[in-house]
Write a structure and sequence with these properties.
Number of strands: 6
Shape: globular
Strand content: 25-35%
Distance between the termini: 18 Å
Number of domains: 1
Largest sheet: 4 strands, mixed
Number of helices: 3
């Protein structure tokens, strides 16, 4: 699951485009299938979204939640691809993008009535 935060007036107009870019990066770097998109957009009022100095109101936070298994090299490749594609396609400078990968062991995930360590029919590999 991916959660994207930003100031409402800047995030709302680009949600669909940003979702396409993020999912495209997840597919190309992690091998995620087309139908495995789980994005949650949290548009915020400016008074509720404090951000570091040197950033603009386009500042966007992307939290990527995933099961453990990807190598540090794969995770770094994903982060770099996201910075590149978000800048070139959406037009947000890398200085205005913050990306965090949050990993949890498979047993901490629950979906389709089972835990992640019980599932045997994923159409993608977690260990890349």
């Amino acid at each position: 699951m991916i959660v994207i935060y930003g100031i409402r007036e800047h995030l709302n107009p680009i949600k669909a485009q940003l979702s396409e870019v993020i999912h495209g990066c997840m597919q190309s770097v992690l091998g995620m299938p087309e139908d495995k998109r789980a994005h949650r957009f949290i548009p915020m009022e400016p008074e509720d979204f404090y951000y570091p100095g040197g950033r603009t109101p386009a500042y966007t936070v992307i939290e990527i939640n995933m099961m453990q298994g990807r190598t540090p090299e794969t995770q770094k490749a994903l982060i770099k691809e996201l910075f590149h594609k978000i800048e070139s396609v959406v037009g947000i400078s890398p200085v205005d993008v913050e990306i965090t990968i949050k990993e949890q062991p498979p047993h901490c995930w629950g979906f389709r009535g089972m835990t992640g360590d019980e599932v045997r029919d994923l159409k993608y590999s977690v260990n890349v």
